[in-house]
Amino acid sequence: MLNVRSFLVTLGDSFYYKRLEEELSGMESVLDVGCGDSSPLARIKKKFRSVGIDVFEPSIRKSKKNKIHDEYTVGDILKIDTFFNPKSFDAVIALDVIEHFKRNDALKLIASMERIAKKKVLIATPHGFTKQSAYDDNPYQEHKSGWGVSDFKKMGYRTRGMRGFKFIRGGEGGANILYKPWIVWGVISALSAPVVYYIPQIASQLVVVKDK
Predict the structure, then answer these.
(1) Taking the model in full, what pTM does it have?
(2) Containing structural domain, residue 45
């Protein structure tokens, strides 16, 4: 049973990682904002130089140990303009990051990312507000804002859906399968990934991109 569950989780995640890899194809440099300790970049074929920045030093130490990025910076990502010059990276990404900030702070972060990026900005975030408290002694894990398709369309982003149907998932962090039997709904969630990609309004996660 555990192996089947792991397979379904991997299957569901594979669509997300494949799309991420495609979006970053052709990039020579990528800045991973709020990289945490286990960036999704570790799960794709990385053909570019990457730099990770995060305010939580234990996360940086763990990521360094796993050699996910080529370089690291410990610092407040709301002040990334002070660490990196305009147009200094081909792509700037923030994967499951902006929901950890109040809306005004997140909008300022997005504006800074757009200044630093030469070619592309990519953001992944839960669709809508999902409650999450701090954990692992990391106060920055709390969720403080929620985001919808219209928020990003107004800012000129291409919006795609990920992680299957939104109604299936919820709970702390918004990622748990809500219904039983888990395997049945896990299959439905995994198989719905290609559907919600084109209909982000019904997706549990959003991946948005602005080409420059």
Answers:
(1) 0.94
(2) 2-211
Angle at 103 between CA 131 and CA 13, to 5 degrees: 50
Overall domain count for the chain: 1
Per-residue pLDDT of the chain (212 residues; tens, 9 = 90+): 558 778 777 877 899 999 999 999 999 999 999 999 999 999 999 999 999 999 999 999 999 999 999 999 999 999 999 999 999 999 999 999 999 999 999 999 999 999 999 999 999 999 999 999 988 888 888 999 999 999 999 999 999 999 999 999 998 888 899 999 998 999 999 999 999 999 999 999 999 999 99
Q: Which residues contact 15 (CB under 8 A, 6 or more apart)?
A: 162, 193, 194, 197
CA separation, residue 1 to residues 5, 10, 133, 182 (Å): 6, 14, 30, 10
